[in-house]
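Q: I have two molecules that I believe assemble together. Could you output structure tokens for the complex as a whole instead of separate predictions?
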Amino acid sequence: MRIGILGTGTLAVALATGWARTGHDIVIGGRSFERAEAAAKASGVRARPLCEVAEHAAAVLLSVRWEGVADILQAVGAPAGALAGKPLIDPTNAVDHGIGVLRTESGRAAAHRVAELAPGAHVVKAFHLFPSTHWSSLSSPAAVVAMCGDDRRALEVVGALVRDIGGVPAVIGGLDRARQLEEVAGFVIALAFAGIDPRSAVPAVPSPESNGGAPQS
Amino acid sequence: MRIGILGTGTLAVALATGWARTGHDIVIGGRSFERAEAAAKASGVRARPLCEVAEHAAAVLLSVRWEGVADILQAVGAPAGALAGKPLIDPTNAVDHGIGVLRTESGRAAAHRVAELAPGAHVVKAFHLFPSTHWSSLSSPAAVVAMCGDDRRALEVVGALVRDIGGVPAVIGGLDRARQLEEVAGFVIALAFAGIDPRSAVPAVPSPESNGGAPQS
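A: Yes, here they are, computed for all two components at once.
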């Protein structure tokens, strides 16, 4: 499958490398073509001018810092519908660095803003909880990738991409659950930067058949 | 320390039992005095009429289902200030059972509602993420109890109570972080009821000294 990656950072490189390894055709673009070329070289894939990244892509990964989301979506023509009909993976964390407070207004998700900026795109929140180092290490244990979105076909496409990179997809609902997933990232960030393993702050469910691990509701 | 427990369910019994074991003086009250007596007997502590539970307590645990929060706070005179100045531990999850969607309105936390219903009380969100079975099993590994609140002294009191029950307290901020903690509970509930171990869906931080486990912000 052809995957267009918007962004040139460590998550872009980690996922591009892993997806290329399983046979996907990856193109990377960024605001700086030099950085896109460097990221493509590091991943063993191709760089393309930003305006061409989405063109033939069957799925698009929006792998930029939150501050750059509006700019890069503008640059690829997303507001004019350039990503319409495509799965658009949103791994962004609109979070104050090291504190874990979300920057988006109360009740709103970063993913909602992404959806507004890319009308018609099938936004899927995913890949926002684990650090890029998780995906670049071949020895990482399988991670469950919690994700949400409104388009079933897009969720299937992204679910397959999660498996291709060694993860286990877990759809927790529609895009209305994105705020919850983003708050979890804020929680993870707050604990990690305080030197606390986030895993020690959530319960383990002893058996996949048991509901005994759930807190009372 | 004298601790008043409002509620007679499994979490009330688990925490009462553990706290009594470390020498605290526990009284339990509920809407039904018979159930309070049964819970007290199961915990090895004393039952008291609801109106007396908070009276001499140095801290109060609000251990009822979300639907019963307003009623029980009313019954102890919290709206009239009966809990003013006391640490009030809020472990409630205002969450649709098995789905993990929060019932409180967008951007609002259950803990904010508790604070409104108990003017002057020092509300501390805590003990809402791990199931009661965690605290009733002597063989449970140490859990980090993420908590938040606005009163430093109340956070210290609750932190000590977390340690007394075998947990590790982690204050992530003021009561304005309660919504985030409650969303994490929704996430945990959604995964657990789907048969997925919530721990596999959050990253492990390899070293307490490292920030390498945090996702990009």
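A: One point stands out. DSSP finds eight helices and eight strands in chain A.
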